[in-house]
Amino acid sequence: MSKKDKKKDEKPQYGMLKCLGWFFSRAKKYRPETIVLLFFQIIFNISSAVFGFYMSPMILSKLENHSTAQELILTAAFFIGGCFISDALVNYIGNGIGAEGFKMAYQVQLRTKIVQEVSDKTVATSYCHCYDNKFLRAAERATNAGYSNAAPTEGIWNTLQNLGVNIVMFIFFTAMLTYIHPVVFAVTVVLSLADFLISGYVYKYNYRHREELSHIDRQAWYLQGLPSQLSVAKDIRLFGLASWINRLTDKALAAKEAYSKKEHKFYLIGTFSSMIIEFLRSGAVIFILLKMCLENGMTAAEFMLYFSAVNSFNGRFSGILNDFLDLKNKCLDFSCILEFLNYPEPFNFGGGEKIPEGYTYEIKLENVSYAYPESDKKIIDGMILTVKPGEKIAIVGLNGAGKTTLIKLITGLLDPDGGRVLLNGVDIKNFNRAEYYKLFSAVFQHFNMFDITVAETVAQSATNIDLPRVRDCIEKAGLTKAVSDLPDGINTHLGREVYLDGVVLSGGQTQRLMLARALYKNGKILVLDEPTAALDPLAERDMYEKYNSMADGKTSLFISHRLASTQFCDRILYLKDGKIAEEGTHESLLKLGGEYAKLFQVQARYYQEDFTKEEAV
Amino acid sequence: MANKSDKMPWKEAFKINVRAIKLLNSKNRLMFPYVTIKALLNTVFSYASLFVTARLIGELAGERRPETLLFWAAFQIISTAVFAIINGVMYHAYEVKATNFWNNLERIEDEKFMSMDYSDVEDQRVRDLRDQIDQNRNWSGWGFSRIQWNFEGLVSNLFSVIGAFAMAAGLIINKVPDESPYAFLNSPFAVLGFLALMIFCASISPFLNGKSMEMSAALADKARFGNRLFGHFNFMRRDPESMVDYRMYNQSEGFLKHYCWVKGETPWFPGGIFDKHNKGVGGLMKIAAVFGEKALMSIIYLFVCLKALGGAFGLGEVTQYVGAVTNFITGFTWTMTLLNNLRVNSKFLKDIFEFLDIPNKMYQGTLTTEKRRDRKYNVEFKDVSFKYPNSERWALRHVFASFEVGTKLAVVGENGSGKSTFIKLLCRLYDPQEGEILLNGVNIKKYRYDEYIAIFSVVFQDYWLMSHKLGQNVAGSCDVNEKRAVKCLEDAGFGERLKELPDGLETWLGKDFDEDGIVVSGGEKQKIAIARALYKDSPFIVLDEPTASLDPLAEAEIYKNFDEIVGDRTAIYISHRLSSCRFCREILVFEDGGIIERGTHDELIDAGGRYKQLWDAQARYYEGEEEIS
């Protein structure tokens, strides 16, 4: 446990000053108003605190001195008026976190600008980072740091404001307490500090038990929300899982409550210690003040003023310490953002060699090896391969043979650990990677769909859409009828996360739409990773034919489970354990009688005329 | 989903709040009583402290008797300590009770989702309603979560107001001596005038706050849209699959940024509707509210101090009365604000109850099914027609079908031809609009659902396994019959892997909750799902595309074991890979919501219809290999 703790408490890469410096530079760049408003907010809060502090004792002292009504009213008007003006300004600008006051708009915009920087990095970063746990952790923290109004990139304004006000008021009360009696000051400082340290320890209970807590918490939250997921809802009904889920939820919630009980029992130590410290502090102060009243003729109003000064001092003192801790935590998050934004990019994203012009390209793999991070298994192991210009390659193999990884190496999503990938003889590392991606029309199994219109999905652009071409691609993908049946045709929004009038396409329609998208992009190299799973036989055949014509004359790579569907390819690679185990045309591989042929027969047997039922058993 | 700016009548608002409190209290035992006690104690302690402070000040401003001063000072210090302990214990006890408050809110929804008709779970309108409820809760705190806050506020302010009355009674009772120039303050008109002015000023701030809250609530729809847009287009997915598309199609420059910053002029930015509101009406209203508070304070001070100047009471009482009247006003203001809040919130509660009150119509049958050892069940579709909710199209139209016991049936057809719908009706995930489905001659609606569904084991394509122990997943329960679970896993082809697992059935699936948990491949998952279906040991077994994510070898293995797996059960097998039809006795071919062909493989091939077309589409890839085999 202690070892793990140490690992988690890694020193932040960027110090507090550097983090604050960065944050203010962003503020200055995107929304300098935020800094000005912070300054005013501190001033107005201080003036409100001072007026409020003096108001009651000053009015009482007028009464105590039997002043005239006029004097009394003037005094009250002065202090209440001062309070009004300060409070009005504070409230107008906006106090606290969230939807209050006009400062919010600037702070929200600044935060979203920072979120945008984080998002830009996320979508552009070298692809290999999505297997890098350190990067992913930094990404998650950087994202969370901008997630809501209370998140560090916006919440820090509140922290800074409180800290500013507390520091000034602390100095103010220090002067006042020292002026009353040095002992009052000494007692207050020592006891406040003791309280802060003890409470600090006690209330860090959750931090000390954070692993246990997060485990308990995650288990409870994992179970919740499940019954609304369609696949879960179905299985709940079909398998009578409701009682199982209920029992597990009961258990998880009981564990949470049991933890909470332990936690709050421990907090009682804090309650007791604070009580004793408060007892000592107010005891000492009241008796010293009373002594001064009796011996030095201090007035009742002064007694009240000084007594509340002690309480306020205490509040400001612990306020500063808490604000500082808060600031430190927020800077930790900033450090993560910075670490994330400055995360080194192994891929070449600026400049680089110009990608050769041409209609077809040759791809060459020189002794390429690749293992996923934190894994010893070479998923691609010393692969040698040349894809000739315009050649159509099929890649087949069992699950886990390395098919998709091979595609990712060729498309430049991953860089090999050993060996080189060459495009027309040039190592692809030399190209600007973003430019290199433009070469490919790729259809993978997963589609990153957004709630944009059909036309925008095909063009993958919101501003620069060639409508005739979009229509043409939709037609080629066999979707024209389906699209014209949509409420707004090609301008219908897909998905319902954002636009409530959006539509959800069926799996088959989505796959066709992705074909249209690949057609529209019209990349020089075609890459298909099992684009026909979950299609019925006729639709599947139709898609194969479409892909076949799309691949016409282009260098293309095609992964499929269904071995026979690769027959339109010039060459088939049979992958096993990260190597090309067999290669050739469909016919030559069958003649070879190796693993490919065996696998093919397993599939083909059922389609053969002489198949008998007994054979199946 | 009524317009949130319309006001709900008070009576209805109270009724709906009482209902919500009752519901929440049943889920969070003792939480509401604890809140009440906590609030009561707080009020008592704060007024006791005010009273003692007033005595101290009074004595200091008056005779200054040392022993009296000492007594009140000691009383103050000791009582504070005692109260701190009692309050602390109470507070922590309450926090323990409130631990699962948020989880329980979620659970109320979950329980509804578990009990409601499946067709409602899938109904987009129901899901939209639920999303709206969740968004209101998570983004603006409207709904059930606000009940707790309102309740605590109302109770403690009520106590505060009552306490203030007791503490401030002396302010009216104590008279200014008649010879004083301030004797006019004794007149009932002065008192009434003071009260009237006070109440007027006191209502300014809650009135304005209420207005501003209504305005915010009215802007809520726009805010929700802005948040949805921003969340959807700016917070990036980080899974390896999504990361591919971002790069391959340059999605960020292509449209994400455009949606975020051009289309998505969020209402929160400078110049947006919230900003305009805050700078204009909203901001001014805030200033006016502060003005109301301060004016009120002035009036209180004026009245109390003038009476004191006139000699009605001393400095101690001034402290006490100012404190009490201020508390009274704060309590009053808050009560008004909270009542307004409660009323606005009621409309959000109405949405929640609209969701919770969706009637559970489907699963109301009462008949028990016959338990037949011989598994002689007969299922018959009699002229069944079905449309999905909100759809015009018949997903199934005039379907007749009946299954013999022990038969192996394949169901094929194009996407959208009605195959899956057929299965969904059979499992009563939906009920048909026309015609009926009979089990041994009785309409299946009449059976108790749990008894009826016990006859079927179904593995859909989108089955679900929990991040929990393997054994519990197979059993679908905390109580696992280990022998049976192992046998089923073996039958489903998971036996080899099971032997490798040191913890056996106790192994966790996934690493979410156990570092030693195992990550299983798609194929293995499918095998576990099949094992779960076998564990149920039902006379019917339905497999919907069970081999979709398997490679050819794994697929062949399942095919090979199919007869063993199925045994003497009636099996229904849906697949796009028609190869599966070869070992099924009978094949149903669906098209456009109807069964257009029915027969054995050979019969259908000879018939040369739709089935042959589908078959040939796949079989042509495998033509000509006879010469090799």
Folded structure, characterized:
The complex is a heterodimer of chains A (617) and B (629). With 617 residues, chain A is an alpha/beta fold. Chain A has 3 domains: 15-341, Up-down Bundle (ABC transporter transmembrane region fold); 360-439 and 525-534 and 552-608, Rossmann fold, CATH 3.40.50.300; 447-522, P-loop containing nucleotide triphosphate hydrolases (Rossmann fold). In chain A, 60% of the residues lie in helices and 9% in strands. Chain A has 23 helices and 10 strands. Chain A has helices spanning 2-8, 16-30, 33-64, 69-93, 103-124, 133-144, 152-180, 182-202, 205-208, 210-223, 230-239, 242-296, 300-341, 403-410, 433-437, 454-459, 467-476, 480-484, 507-521, 537-550, 586-592, 595-604, 613-616, and strands spanning 363-371, 378-387, 392-396, 418-423, 426-427, 440-443, 525-529, 555-559, 571-576, 579-584. In chain A, the strands form 2 sheets. Chain A has a 6-stranded mixed sheet. Chain A has a 4-stranded antiparallel sheet with strand order 2-1-4-5, covered by helices on one side. In chain A, strand 1 and strand 2 form a beta hairpin. In chain A, helix 2 packs across helix 13 (300-341), helix 3 (33-64) packs antiparallel against helix 4 (69-93) and helix 21 (586-592) packs across helix 22. The longest helix of chain A is centred in the middle third of the chain and has 55 residues, at 242-296. The two termini of chain A are 54 Å apart. In chain A, 43% of the residues are buried. With 629 residues, chain B is an alpha/beta fold. Chain B folds into 2 domains: 10-353, ABC transporter type 1, transmembrane domain (ABC transporter transmembrane region fold); 379-455 and 538-622, 3-Layer(aba) Sandwich (Rossmann fold), CATH 3.40.50.300. Chain B has helices spanning 10-27, 31-61, 66-97, 101-115, 118-122, 124-140, 144-173, 188-234, 240-248, 251-263, 273-279, 281-309, 315-356, 419-426, 449-453, 470-475, 482-491, 495-500, 522-535, 552-566, 601-607, 610-619, and strands spanning 379-387, 394-403, 408-413, 434-439, 442-443, 456-459, 540-544, 570-574, 586-591, 594-599. Chain B has a 6-stranded mixed sheet, with helices on both faces. In chain B, helix 2 runs parallel beside helix 7 (144-173), helix 8 (188-234) packs antiparallel against helix 10 and helix 12 runs antiparallel to helix 13 (315-356). The longest helix of chain B has 47 residues, at 188-234. Chain B starts with 9 loop residues before the first helix and ends in a 10-residue tail after the last helix. The model of chain B is unreliable at 625-629 (pLDDT under 50).
